[in-house]
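Much of what follows relies on a compact textual record of a protein's fold. The record below shows the convention in full:
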Amino acid sequence: MKKQVPASFQNPAFRFVLTLGMVNLFADITYEGGAAANGQFLGTLGASAAAVSIIAGLGEFLGYGIRPIAGYIADKSGKHWLVTFVGYVINLLAVPALALAGNWYAAAALILAERVGRAIRKPTVQSMLSYTTGKFGRGWVYAVNTALDETGATLGPLIVALVLFLHGSYRTAFAVFLISSLLALAFLVVARIGYPLPSKLESFAGETAPEKSLTKSYWLYMVAGSLFAIGILSYELVAFHLLKSDLLAAQWIPVFLAGITGIGVVANLIIGRLYDRAGVSVVLVAVALSSLFSPLMFFGGNAGIFLAMPLLAIAYATQDTLLSAIIAGLLPEGRRGFAFGVFYVGYGSGWLIGSTAAGLLYEHSRIGLVVVACGAQLLSLPLFYYASSNR
């Protein structure tokens, strides 16, 4: 077993992690900034709470459901970079195009297109990053990448807030994101030129799955992840709730969401490092804390929404860092893009079920919404534990 080496800019593998991290920083400015405005924008165009939540859930389902197809195509063809570029172009240009949407149906189509683009490029990016995890630790690699993601996700909503404070419109904010979209694509070109074959960066350290097929633990983790996803509420529904309940003024909602993602930057780095040291126990604690978000958000009043902020940050850190780190340790050789994609089909299915239920229950039973969201995440705990004991 090789010892993990310190992360240094002189190390080509770590430079690759940072370069892709910069791509994702600017990409997240774009689409997370868009996400901070999507719910309110749809509402101003006449969409209902159920429509907003279902659109968000369907977008996440497509965003996960297409991943195995994209991963399979990339693995079979070997054209990981081509698939990655196609995904980023769709993902990044759909957001500024929202400035031109004439009704909520057109806006919904662009929101879904953005999720599809992310689905196309996500498994290839995660599989390319997996070639560096042996050097630095799975938790740490995905934590650094996600922390840069979340830095962008913090800045994006703040840009929306600034536009609104300056008496601009949601359309103006969407148009501004063309700048960050082009910067993300520029860094992607740098990554492609500098690292045409990321697989050459691989150096094994720790557990890496030698199996040719997906293991029992893999499928158990998928079910656990799906239950966890049922309980995560989308930014769109949270923003819609804050606006409709008069808990925050419109211009402060993006700032609130930026606060969540800002906390997420720190949360990702902490739990990523802890995962490399303590394993699944970190996952169990993170999921238990995440389950408290929905009761605080819907029944905690003004104080509750601020207490809920770090809990949603932990939930997204669990999704983006911990689950990626877990699956990276179970990946069969030569099928990494496909394996990531299949896992997220299950995860996306859970998100679609949860978002649909949340959108429908929001109008009729907030208690029912909280029971479903909180209960599903608590049910995932024994499965996460059992999956880890069967590795």
